[in-house]
Amino acid sequence: MSEQQAKLSKSEAKTYRVQGFTCANCAAKFENNVKSLPGVQDAKVNFGASKITVWGTTTIEELEKAGAFENLKVREDKEKSVKREPFWKQKENIKVYISAVLLVISWFLGKQYGEEHIFATIGYAAAILIGGYSLFIKGFKNLVRLNFDMNTLMTVAILGAAAIGEWGEGATVVILFAISEALERYSMDKARQSIESLMDIAPKEALIRRGNEEMMVPVDDIQVGDIMIVKPGQKLAMDGIIIKGTSTLNQAAITGESVPVAKTVGDEVFAGTLNEEGLLEVKVTKRVEDTTLSKIIHLVEEAQAERAPSQAFVDRFAKYYTPAIIIFALLLAVIPPLFMGADWSEWIYRGLAVLVVGCPCALVISTPVAIVTAIGNAAKNGVLIKGGIYLEEAGSLKVIAFDKTGTLTKGVPSVTDVVTYNGDENELMTITAAIEKGSQHPLASAIIRKAEEDGLNFNDLSVEEFQSITGKGVKAKVNNEMYYVGSPGLFEELLPNGIQSEIKEQITTLQTQGKTVMALGTEKEILALIAVADEIRESSKEVIRKLHQVGIEKTVMLTGDNQRTAEAIGKQVGVSDIKADLLPEDKLNFIKELRDKHQSVAMVGDGVNDAPALAASTVGVAMGGAGTDTALETADIVLMSDDLSKLPYTIKLSRKALAIIKQNITFSLGIKALSLLLIVPGWLTLWLAIFADMGATLIVTLNSMRLLKVKE
C-alpha cells in the first residue's frame, strides 16, 4: 500500500468487484480513469482478483462511466457474483463466429472472381465491421486522446490496410485479434475461478438457535456467541467451538487434507468444512469477515495484487518499449518514401506491420496469468502463498531449515520402551503413573498417557509422603513401600553399589537412540526403565526424501535438544545437517548465516515461537495455519494443515511457476525480435504480424494454465 493510501483512513476505502477486464493494460487504464474522478483521492486495481479499492467518495455509475471504454460492470464487493454465460455463448464471442464465416466466404469469392471483385471486398468489409466494431470505438477514442494502446495500434493498422486496398488482410487481422482477446478473457476467467470457487465453499446462511427459537440467519447477521446447529452432510457457515456432539469433519477446503478429522466437544471448527456424520452444536467465535476462510480469500486476493520481481521488470520494460515501437513504425513508413524515393504504399504497409507486431500484449500478460493460476491452485490445495514474490523465491530455494519440535516431530513426548527387571510391567507402570500424577514434569504426562492407553487403574492406588527431589526425580510411598522415579543419576547416588553394569549398558543404548530414560526403583534396586521420546511425525521422513528429490540441496534441523537426541532424530528423518543446543536467538543467527552463504533460505516452523527465525529467512513457512492467526500473519507461505506433506508440492509448484514465467518472457521477446527481423526483407505481412503477436499471447497463456495441473 502506498504511503498516501496508508494516510487515508480505512473507513474511506471501499472495494468493488469489476467484471470485464480483458488485459492488464486495460486494468491500469481503468485505475487511472477512476483516480481522476471528482471525490476520489486514490484507487488501486487488483487485476488478479478483478477488484478495485477506492479511497474517497464515488458512485457505481461514475465507476462504470470510467470503465465505459471496456464496457466494465461494477458491483459492491459483498454482492454475489453474477453468473456469466458459458464462454461459447458470450455475446462478444458470437461476433467472432459471424465475421470468421464472412471471411471464409469472401476468400472463396476472391478465388472465384478475383481479389478485387466487389462481392469479395463487401464480404471483407462486413467481416471487419462486425468483428472489429467495439475495437474501433475504443481505438478512435484513444486516438483522439493520443493514447496509444493495443486498441489504437490495431485500429490504425486495420484502417491503414483497408486504405491501401488490403481488405482481406484487414479482415484477417480483425478476426485473429478478436479470437486472441476471447482466449485471453477465457484464460483469466479460468485463473480467477480458483478464487471464486473458494468464495462458494461456505454456506451464505446457517441454522441458529437464539433462546428457544431456531431460525435460518444470513451469515452477515450471525453474532459471536450464537449457537449454530449443523446437521450431517451440511457445511459449516462460521468458525466456532463444538459445545455438543461428535462427528468427523472433512477439512479439505481449508487445510487440503483429504482424510476427515474426528472432532468433539471443545474442538475448534472452521467455516467451509463438511460435517460428515453427527449432529453438532457449535458456538460461533468469529464474525463472518474474521473466519479463517475469509482470511484465506483475502490473503489470496492480496497475494495476486503483489507484484513479483519478474512482473515489475516486464512493466518497466513495456513502459519504454511501446512508445519506442510507435516512433519506429512511423519513421519506417515515412523515411524510405521521403528520402529514398521508395513506394509509399509498400512502406506504409511495413510500418503498419511493425505497429501490430510491436504490441507488448504477450509480454505484459506473461507473468500475472502464471502467478494468479499458481496461487489459486495452491490455495485449493491448502497452501497459502502470500504473493508472487514468495512464489518466485520458493522456486529458487536451495536450503530449507526446520524447527524440530512440533514440525518434524509431534511435539508431545510419549513412552517408547518399558524394560522391567523385577515384577510385572503393568503393575510397575501403575505404580509409576500413580506417583507421577503429583508431578508437573512433561515426561510425567507421557507416563500418565501411556497408563491411560493401557487401561491401568492408577487412580485407585493411594500415594503417601510424595516429595520432589529437585532436578533428579520424585519419591513416594505406595502400599507402604518407598519408591523412587527419576533420572539414572538419582539411582547412581541412591544405590549402595551404584547401577549394575548391564542396566547401565541398557540405559546408554536407549539414550543413543535419542530417548530420555527414567528409572523406577527402591533404595535397594532398579525395578524398571521407562524411555520417553518426542515422536517423529509419520510424514517427516518421506517429506525430507521428496524435498531432496525435487532439488533441495540441503535440509537443516534446528533444535534446543542435546546433540545426542538431535542426531538420533535427524538420522531417522534423513536431514543433511543437524544443529542442536540452540536458544531462540541462536536459531535467528543461524538463519542469517545460512542466508549469507546461500542467499535464499526457507525456515519452516509452527509459527508461534519461531516468528523471529521465520521473519529472518527469505521465505518463512508456517504450518498448522488453520488454527493460529500468528502463522497466518507472520509467515510468507502457510501450510494450512498441521502436516509437512504439502511442502514438496509447494516447492514443485513454485519451481514450475518460475520456469513458466521465464519461458513466457523469453518466448514473448524472442517472437518480437524474430518478427521485427522479417521486416528487412519485407516478409512481414500484416496477418503474419498479428498471428505472431496473438499466437505468442495464446501460447504464453496456455503455458501458464499448465500450473493448474500441478498436483501433489
How would you describe what is shown here?
With 712 residues, the chain is α+β, with helices and mostly antiparallel strands. It is built from 26 helices and 26 strands. The strands form five sheets. A seven-stranded mixed sheet has the order 14-26-25-24-15-22-23, with helices on both faces. Strands 6-5-7-13-8-11 form a six-stranded antiparallel sheet, with no helix packed on it. Strands 16-21-20-19-18-17 form a six-stranded antiparallel sheet, with helices on both faces. Helix 4 (91-113) crosses helix 5 (118-144). The chain is elongated. 45% of the residues are buried.
Number of strands: 26
Low-confidence stretches: none
- Please give the share of residues in helix: 40-55%
Number of helices: 26
Q: From the helix content, strand content and strand pairing, which structural class follows?
A: alpha+beta
Query: Order of strands across the widest beta sheet?
Result: 14-26-25-24-15-22-23
Whole-number mean pLDDT: 82
C-alpha termini separation: 34 Å
Largest sheet: 7 strands, mixed
Rg computed from alpha carbons, rounded to a whole number of angstroms: 34 Å
Percent of residues in β-strands: 15-25%
CA-based shape: elongated
Key features?
single chain, about 700 residues, alpha+beta, seven-stranded mixed sheet, six-stranded antiparallel sheet, elongated
Task: State the gist of this model.
With 712 residues, the protein is an alpha+beta fold. The protein has 26 helices and 26 strands. α7 runs parallel beside α26.
SSE blueprint and pairings:
Layout (H helix, E strand, L loop, with lengths): L2 H5 L5 E7 L4 H12 L4 E7 L4 E6 L3 H7 L6 E4 L14 H23 L4 H27 L5 H14 L3 H33 L5 E6 L2 E6 L8 E4 L9 E5 L2 E4 L1 H4 L5 E3 L4 E2 L4 E2 L4 E5 L7 H14 L3 H32 L3 H15 L2 H6 L1 H13 L2 E3 L2 H8 L3 E5 H5 E12 L4 H12 L5 H12 L9 E7 L3 E6 L2 E6 L1 H7 L6 H12 L3 E6 L4 E11 L3 H10 L4 E5 L4 H11 L3 E3 L4 H15 L2 E5 L5 H6 L2 E5 L5 H6 L2 E3 L6 H32 L8 H20 L7
Keywords: ATP-binding, Cadmium, Cell membrane, Ion transport, Membrane, Metal-binding, Nucleotide-binding, Phosphoprotein, Translocase, Transmembrane, Transmembrane helix, Transport
Subcellular location: Cell membrane
Enzyme class: translocase
